[in-house]
Structures are given as C-alpha cells and as structure tokens.
Fold this protein.
Amino acid sequence: MSSPDATTPPGALQERLVPLLTALQDLAEACSDQPEALLEILRSIEGLHRSIQDGPFRSSLPEDRNKLFTLLQAMERSGGWPYIPRLQLKTFIELLDQDPAGMAA
C-alpha cells in the first residue's frame, strides 16, 4: 500500500480515508452487541493512533522553530490535537448503578 506524500491534496487523502473509516464503522455496528469485540476495535484504533503519532507524524515535524510554530497554529485553527478519550471508571460505575429499565434506553 503506497503512502501519501507531502504533495497529496487533502481531497485525495479524504477519498482514501472515507472507505477505510466506513469499513471500521460497519465493523463496529456489526459488533454492536459484543462489548469485547468493540473493546478490541477501540484498542486497535488507539494503537494505530499511537503508532502514527510516534512514527510518521513525529518524524514529519519540522525542525525549524518558525515552521513548527506555523504548524501548531494551523493545528489549532483546524481543531487542535486529535485525542481519543477513554471511558473513565466512574462512567462504568454509573452504568452499574442504573436501574435495568434505564440501561435498556
């Protein structure tokens, strides 16, 4: 699989991403009643996020301070740093405290 280079236009990147993201969404929906499978999907996505962050993204960062500052400004304008939030233990406890009728909702 070839990887996009610095000249890949954003539209072309989206064209490649959309089917991949759709496939992941379809997989998650197919596993909607299997929490263990969904957890595995989430762990895999988190691992991919970490791998991209620590590998290609980090090595692509500019070494020049001005270029790095420009990149950080662009990141802020476009929504900031991508973050994968995790459910907190408190959330699971709250789910356990719900009555059975509330959990069906």
Q: What stands out?
A: The mean pLDDT is 84. Residues 10-104 form one domain. DSSP finds five helices and no strands in the chain.
